[in-house]
Amino acid sequence: MPHPTLVIWDAALTRYDFGEGHPMNPLRLALTARLAEGLGVLGHVDVEAPRLPDGSDEFLLSVHSRAYVDAVMAASANPADADTSFGLGTEDDPAFVGMHDVSALIAAGTLRAVQAVHTGEYEHAVNFTGGLHHAMPVAASGFCIYNDAAIGIQWLLDQGVERVAYVDIDVHHGDGVEKTFWNDPRVLTISIHESGTVLFPGTGFARDCGGPEAEGMAVNVSLPPGTGDAEWLRALHAVVHPVVTAFAPQVLVTQHGCDSHYSDPLAHMVLTVDAQKMAHQSLHELAHDVCDGRWVALGGGGYELVDVVPRSWTHLTAIAADHPIPLETPTPDEWRRHVEAITGRTAPTKMGDGVAENDDVWFQSWASGMHPESQVDQAVMATREAVFPHHGLDVWFD
Asked: Histone deacetylase domain spans which residues (predicted)?
């Protein structure tokens, strides 16, 4: 029997730092690890620091071009040499000393997580520092330098895995992973996100469903601004679960960006940590339903550094460890004192936002039928119409 859960973590990963004032503040990672430790979550898992495979960064070339990796290395050594034609040295992706090294280390962490699950060493693996889903094969994008999720998936394919499902619940479209596998029928990419008509990267619409050799393998649920808990959970279950089940992957890789929260400064959704926890749990259960529990869970976006990211990803880690934390659980006194000492802010006192009842956020399943007046249901139906026939699924009914 495999050990239950591997967690990739080391304080060195907080060196992924674009500088003061940038939304991608590595404090969110340190506070997550500290909260998970304070609640005893890390005592239920094996924690491992990432290392470059064979001491080399050559593994990056499975997804990224040599020219791009060389450009990152040059910018990493001297940020003044950043080449904007590769997306480096921009407002979103400013160059910093050591950028290549820590970005490669994050990607190596996800590679290790994928390898551990594939070989049966662990049932689940979590790298909440990963999920950098916007990075393209030849360019940085959206705070992402190397696309660790795509690198991990490509490694699985190189081992002969025939079907990998990638589910992305970040508020932003998972465009880099989708682009990498756009025409590969072995990879199902699903992204549930705020509409690209109002949010970066401006892509990911229902009609975007894969290349000529992989029609229906890219699945996009493009939701309107202001979508809340019940509607979002309804959309997730109405699309993700039936398509993944029909695809029958051998491994499930998920990205858990928590920037869909109502307090996130970069988006316009109104979810709570309560609903995010339900989504983490639901994807965990899906992994057991479809691929014998082989599950790799990654972090992603999330820019409310104190109130959201640490709680959401601690819930994710606890769920992967099979020791879920009730939403009414108080946050540790020591953690709150630490937050106030380093940020001057008052930290949340409980692990939930107070919306759920008995740890459950109510939502109406798609089995109740479509609500034509609902913009969310219209978006869900557009996706179902675009991709369900490719998977032999009924557009109208579960």
From this structure: 22-318
